[in-house]
Amino acid sequence: MSVVLTKNPMDALYNEFKEKAEAISAEVHRVADVKAARELVTKIIKELGTNKVVYAPSELTQSIDVQAIGKDAGVEMTSENLRQNAADAGLGISQLDYAIAEIGTLVGNATSIESRMVSILPPVHVALVRTANILPNLLETIALYNNKLGELPRYLTFVTGPSRTSDIERVLTIGVHGPGRLIIVFID
Amino acid sequence: MAIAKLKQDINSALNNDNLTGALGRFGEAYLPAREKAYEGKDFAAIREQIKEIKSYAADHMEELAEQFAKQAEKNGAKVFRAKTAAEAKEYIAKVVKEHNAKTVIKSKSMASEEIHLNDYLLKNTGVDEVAETDLGEWIIQLCGQRPSHMVMPAIHMTRDEVAEIFSKETNQNLDPDIAKLVKVARENLRQKFLRAGIGISGANIAVAETGTIVMCTNEGNGRLTTTVPPVHIILVGLEKLVPKFKDVGPILEALPRSATGQKITSYVTMISGPTPAIDLDGNIIEQKELHIVLMDNGRTAMRDDPMFKQALQCIRCASCLNVCPVFQKVGGHVYGHVYTGGIGTILTAFLNSFEKAGELQNLCLRCERCKTYCPGKIDLPALIAELRRRTVEKNGLPMGQKLILEKVLTNRKLFHSLLRTASVAQKPFVKGNVIRHLPLFFSGLTEGRSLPAIAAKPLRDKVGHYVPKSKPKAKVGYYAGCLGDFVYPEQGEAAYKVLGKMGMEIVFPLEQTCCGIPATQMGAPEVAVKLAKQNIEAFEKEGLDYIVSLCPTCVEVLKHHYVDYLKNDPAWKERAEKFAAKVVDFPTFVAKHGNNLKFKKLFTKATYHDSCHMKRTLNVWKEPRELLNKAGVKLVEMKGCDECCGFGGSYSIKMPEISKAILDKKLVNAEAAGADVLALDCPGCKMQIAGGLDAKGSKLPVKHTVELLAEALDD
Ligand code: SF4
Fold it and tell me: Which region holds residue B90: left if phi is over 0, alpha if psi is between -120 and 50, else beta?
């Protein structure tokens, strides 16, 4: 379903991001437009076989029309009462603002309670990001926020791969308190 | 009394196979992972930046604390400045009571461990539970232990133990399957998150400019703690302050890489003010309550101490523990406090008790490994030595040691004549080339290691002033060191042979004496200063171009410590500097000036042991290998070639059990290399390794590089 586009200035950064993020167990896709994104997200939901999906309203969730996706996939799609709903949903969908190629990290303003609840409580998190917003490295990302310190979000989040632990005998285990799967969808 | 308890703890740790196994495995995996994480990064540059940021922050602690508080309050947080642990606890308890919370969840915070917050809340508020949510911390909490590592608190436990603990907690019979155990933790803690009224977390960085708190976690518990409960309390020590938002960059680049070999942790959260939350009834709260407790508890005292201020550059990555050979053998619990390892010893002094720390400094080998890895660029071994000095200053040295150091060591004639007497007196004890009792700091019982005998004739009686037939290329002063002079004269003779072939004129100043390191290590720097002056005087008279020694520790002392000891003594400062400028270690000197040397092939397979002070302090490790190559020796590297042999000067006497455990690993690696000979460049390491091999009945000979070179010389 994901397409690889050629001759796009973001290609190199995207490829680097994909390599780094996959190395830490994230799943990375890229689609050409919102229509393709809609199809991909529908497919992911169907494959998961869940009946409840929660989302954090944002510009991208609106453009892919999550409510319509919910209908197509035949699941309850909600952003209400998330203390309860996010805790027993099979999937959470939210938008992140930037991606950092060098380390495979997503970055975004997570001040809204919805964006945090849906990205940490369900076992799977789908993150929507604009392909144009891939930045080269951490220091430039920090510099970017540093340039507009007055608008620093109250809750700025950096997410790299699914939740993990090595606390028992140093054996890596994916998925502890946060999601066990992180699926990233880049939209061109 | 206390030392006896420490020894007991050490012995039980050394006999704990789980512990030594888990730590050993981790120790081996850590370095390659770290290396990989730093690929393409300039560690030296990053640590320099961190040092600058953090030392500035330490100097401006109060200013930054005020700025932080002001900014965070402007953002909508409530900031409380706690001078002491008690104040911090009272404040947090007050908040807990105000909200009538029954369940409190915590995301890893060493500061809260430091003040024993959980206990306090359970006793002084109406809470039913204070749950640690980091998996490792939770395991520790359930079995009533303390964390043994700052980053991996449960590293000392096995899956079987965890299964047992979780089985008890959940009333189930759980298999020791790690993935399943993690799931059990997830489900259990999930319930606690969802019913928690208050979340308490720590912080990795606090930015004064923006009032921002930065937190790094992998499991996601940090995000849950800061998101789900409608009240959030952050407990942060003053040492976490940095001035600017951009300062987060370098710290965030180093912290995960140095801690666990990750490029970044799964979650990094930067909180700059209260966010919306959902209360227990499902209502949206537009602004949750956010409390930030800025805690001092000994940190300004640390800042006010000219030496220990440096320790505030610590970013709590724990890499000093990860590379510490002692920690790898005994784990964190023997340190007996919240903070463990090298940095733990220092923090314990200021955040808990100086007494305890004075005892803990005995654990440090001074192998200097931590210093090369510390991203805060802290000279941990020097700070630990300073702890030692202060303890001695306060409590005094034991009479015997005092007598030896002050009366014997500073009186060269007496010292040397005692050594000579010993070479005779030891005769009844010598069996083959092995002896069990030696005077002074070589004395004491040893286990699993034979000690060499004192030579019948010291080096000073065998060599003297050598003048080459042709015009000398330079005039070299030979510094033997105690071991080189009285135990291994053959090494010095070999050195004379090589230096002579290089066309050097060689002088052995007879007034030279002990470099002083044992005195420094025992906490009597005034004795070391006396010895420094004696040595400087002895060499000054000779009009030398260079001063060469086979012992890297002596070179380090002569070249670096003397200048430092005498820097405030105008009459001596310049003399020490002139002297120091001439001092050079043997391999470097030969590599530089020995191009004319001709060797016949030795046809030997050698493996090489890097001495801690040669490799890390003097940064010399290529040179001896090149020289051995030139001599026709085939080098087969052993595993862990630059890991400490466990000698550490008087350490092998003070902490023989640990010293031996570290030595054992070295011996296994040395023998596994399958070489004909083990080469090294330090008489101390030779004493340790050769002694260990001898006691084990191994036939592998140990030679100083210079001995192999002398053998290979083509005369
Ligand atoms: S002292 Fe250095 S190496 Fe040790 S924890 Fe602190 S920053 Fe890390």
Answer: alpha
